[in-house]
Design brief:
By secondary structure, the chain is of the alpha/beta class. The chain is built from 7 helices and 10 strands. This is Uridine phosphorylase.
Length: 249
Amino acid sequence: MTQDLLPLTRIPSTGLPSSALVVGDPARAAAVAELLDDAEEVSHHREYRLFTGSRKGLPVAVASHGVGGPGAILLFRELADAGVRTLIRLGTAGAIRSGIADGDLVIAEGAVRDDGVTGQLPPPEYPAVAAPEAVLALARAAREASVPHHRGIVWTRAAFQPGLLPVTEYGKAGVAAIEMELSALLVTASLRGLTAGGVLVVDGTNADDLVDVEATGGYAPHRQVVADGVGRAAAVALEALRLLAGDTG
C-alpha cells in the first residue's frame, strides 16, 4: 500500500478495498474491525480512523468519520478518491415512527437533506437516495440473520437535539428515524457514481409523543440493548457488502 496520503483524512490515496463500512466513532471502527480476518489499522488522523481486512474472503475497509455531515463528507470524498466504490454507513438513530424498538435496525431508503453541508453543493431538489441494490442487500442480510429491522426514509439533521423542530410532523410523513450523516453519504455517492446505503441502530426515541421520560429516564444510548443492536448491525452490514460484491457463496 502506497504511503501517499490524502490531505484531509490522511488515508492512503491508493490500495484500499473497493468495499467500505463507515461509522461515526473511531472506537466503533476498531470494534467492527475485530470481525474481519487479518485486520490492520492503516491510519488514524483526528476522527478518521481506518482499518482494512477481509470478511468471508471479501477485502473490506472500515473507517470512522466523526459526528456530523460537514466532517463526514470529507471522509466519503477521500474514500472515493482512493478507489472505494461501495459504502455502507452503520450508525445509531432516534426512532420517529411508532413501532420501532430500541436495538432494532432501520435500513434507509433515502434521507431528508438537513445535514448542514449538502445544501451548499447540489440544489435542494436533488434527492438523497440509497442505491436500491444496497437496500435489498441490507434487508436480505437482516432477514437471513433474523434481525428485527425496518425500512424507510430517515432524517439527517445537523443539530443533535431537534429542539422545537417538527419531529412529529416527520413521523406523520412516515419518516422512520433521525441521525446526522447519512444524507451526506448518499448525495456524495450519487454525485460520484458510487453504491451506498445505510443501516442504523435505534438508541432512543425522538418523537415527543412517543417518549415516556418517567419510564425511560430520557435519552440513554449506552445500554446493552443498543450495544447488542450495533453488533447485529455490523454483521448485517458486512454481509450486505459481500452480497453487493457478488460473492454469494
